[in-house]
Amino acid sequence: MDTSYPREDYLSTPAHKRESSPTTHVSPPPRDHLIWSIFNTIYMNFCCLGFVALAFSVKARDRKVSGDVEAARHFSSKARCYNALATAGSVVLPLLVAALVITGVIHLSKLAHESVGFFTYQFSGSDDEDK
């Protein structure tokens, strides 16, 4: 006897409840991006954008629970936008600062190397004139 499939439950449900309607397409509920917002709020809070994203994420979750799908999609879109801005700002700005520091160090080292050559020329020129 095969007990892997509950045949009694299937047979006890009426046939009209077993059929699915082929024309209705249920869209998935919108994502609220809450975990991403919490991460941006705690670790990468650039100009408080992570906190703003967290507020919109909570609003999106509240609207999704209450059944207002359109408002949930609207707040979810705003939360995604602020999360992307916070993440981009928190990743791009340190990279930009590092690039500026590296180019500044390279420029200063070249300038120092040229200055050493200039000063040694001045000192060696004055030593030759004394003799």
TrEMBL record:
GO cellular component, as recorded: plasma membrane
Pfam families: CD225
GO biological process, one term: bone mineralization
Region of interest called Disordered, as start-end residue ranges on this chain: 1-28
Subcellular location: Membrane
Transmembrane segments: 34-56, 82-106
UniProt KW keywords: Membrane, Transmembrane, Transmembrane helix
Family statement drawn from the similarity comment of this UniProt entry: Belongs to the CD225/Dispanin family.
Protein name from the UniProt record: IFM5 protein
Species annotation: Crotophaga sulcirostris (Groove-billed ani)
Gene designation: Ifitm5
